[in-house]
UniProtKB/TrEMBL annotation:
The keyword rRNA processing applies. Keywords: Nucleus, Ribosome biogenesis, rRNA processing. SMART domains: PINc. It is found in: Nucleus, Nucleolus. One of its GO terms (biological process) is rRNA processing. Part of the small subunit (SSU) processome, composed of more than 70 proteins and the RNA chaperone small nucleolar RNA (snoRNA) U3. Residues 67-166 form the PIN domain. It comes from Sapayoa aenigma. InterPro entries: Fcf1/UTP23, Fcf1_PIN, PIN-like_dom_sf, PIN_dom. Signal peptide: none annotated. Its main location: nucleus. This is rRNA-processing protein FCF1 homolog.
Length: 183
């Protein structure tokens, strides 16, 4: 013997108690909100996001040689896999002097990765890299980079992380550097 199918009833919906029901106490009854008429002569206030003064349309005037490049953890790891000299590749890409910058959060993230990523740690401790101190709690590097780039538009972000690139593309005037096809 098989299981019998139950036929669903047509157009069944949950019953709701109406506001006029005697079971609802007087104090619990919701009163319809009274709509105020808008004065057409009144000044309407809108909150418009303030764009930084360094942006001239889509062009960021703070960017210029020597370029300051914020480096992410996975960018260092991918440069090792692609056998690229990080600073030299950046200079070849931009045809100008580049100063790679690394935040405390990114450094902490590389140190957490352990012994397997000791080459990346040695590259990150290179004296050519400028170390940027972090004043916030936690060591989540993606949030740190996004926050820093939002405050100061003078950085180029070097990352391979798709999620981080998607977040940075929403911030106007911030260029992204990434590794593709081993260059």
């Amino acid at each position: 013997q098989g299981k019998q199918k139950k036929a669903r009833k047509y157009a069944v919906m949950k019953r709701m108690i109406s506001l006029r029901d005697e079971r609802i106490k007087e104090k619990d009854r919701a009163k319809a909100p009274v709509k105020k008429k808008e004065d057409p002569s009144a000044i309407k206030e809108r909150e418009v996001p303030q764009h930084p003064s360094c942006l001239f349309f889509q062009y960021n005037t703070q960017l210029g040689p020597p370029y300051h490049i914020l480096v992410d953890t996975n960018f260092i790891n991918f440069s090792i896999k692609a056998k690229l000299d990080l600073v030299q590749s950046m200079m070849d890409c931009l045809c100008a002097k580049c100063i790679p910058c690394i935040t405390d959060c990114v450094m902490g993230e590389i140190e957490k990765l352990g012994q397997k990523y000791r080459v990346a740690l040695r590259i990150a401790k290179d004296p050519r890299f400028e170390r940027l101190p972090c004043m916030h709690k936690g060591t989540y590097a993606d949030d740190c980079l996004v926050q820093r780039v939002t405050q100061h538009k003078c950085y180029i972000v070097a990352t391979v992380d798709k999620e981080l690139k998607r977040r940075i593309r929403k911030i106007p005037g911030v260029p992204i550097m990434y590794i593709s096809r081993h260059r």
